[in-house]
Amino acid sequence: MLEVTDLACLKGDRLLFRGLALRLAPGAMLRVAGPNGVGKTSLLRLLTGLTEPEAGTVSWCGVPLRRERENFHRALFYLGHAAALNDMLSALENLRFACAAAGDEEVDEAACVRALERIGLGAQLDLPARVLSQGQRRRVGLARLFLASARPLWVLDEPFTALDVHAVADLAGTLGAHCAAGGMVVLTTHQEAPFAQPPDVLDVGRYAC
Ligand SMILES: Nc1ncnc2c1ncn2[C@@H]1O[C@H](COP(=O)(O)OP(=O)(O)OP(=O)(O)O)[C@@H](O)[C@H]1O
């Protein structure tokens, strides 16, 4: 269970939002909505513990994040809005590096190959990231979803960006299946996706200062 109470976010000398509250139970999917610049990415970074709130608390299983970091990070899969790839490394090497950096020690090369094949990059495994298209770069990051089923909380910033219509539908199905299995998803997106069960929506603009 992820719970947020009375959250405020300061950027520079500007208070973006305050009084924001949410609760995410197993099986739930939440879409964080609002116009450009309202603070969606900033909220996701607060939810993942990457940044500290100006006020309020983010709790995981009833314990504030600042006292729960290790357990929380084992439970979290976070995908930022930029595809953070090393252009010199291949798609497979990038995925293996991302898994190692996240502490997924049990993930071996064969599992990474299967994940990349599952996401439609079977023919690009050994291509350097610098020659991949934007959608293919996005897919390298998303391939980790197929290795992260043990992590209940998925926080995804614009996961559909640059994906074609089939990949959008496939990803929507993957996220729905994760929730149906008791996982939780928080995402931002500016585009509609064909979810079988429409996610709950949190409009950050309601809390804007
Ligand atoms: N150091 C800073 N000083 C002042 N404002 C900042 C600073 N850093 C970020 N901001 C502002 O914080 C706001 C929130 O940015 P954020 O990326 O969270 O928005 P967003 O809702 O995710 O936008 P988008 O839909 O465009 O991705 C923006 O208006 C941005 O200009």
UniProtKB/TrEMBL annotation:
Superkingdom field: Bacteria
Record domain ABC transporter: where: 2-207
GO annotation terms (biological process): cytochrome complex assembly
Gene Ontology terms, MF aspect: ATP binding; ATP hydrolysis activity; transmembrane transporter activity
Protein name: Heme ABC transporter ATP-binding protein CcmA
Keywords, ordered alphabetically: ATP-binding, Cell membrane, Cytochrome c-type biogenesis, Membrane, Nucleotide-binding, Translocase, Transport
Keyword Membrane recorded: yes
Pfam family for this entry, one: ABC_tran
Alphabetical list of SUPFAM superfamilies matching this protein: P-loop containing nucleoside triphosphate hydrolases
Alphabetical list of InterPro entries matching this protein: AAA+_ATPase, ABC_transporter-like_ATP-bd, ABC_transporter-like_CS, ABC_transptr_haem_export_CcmA, P-loop_NTPase
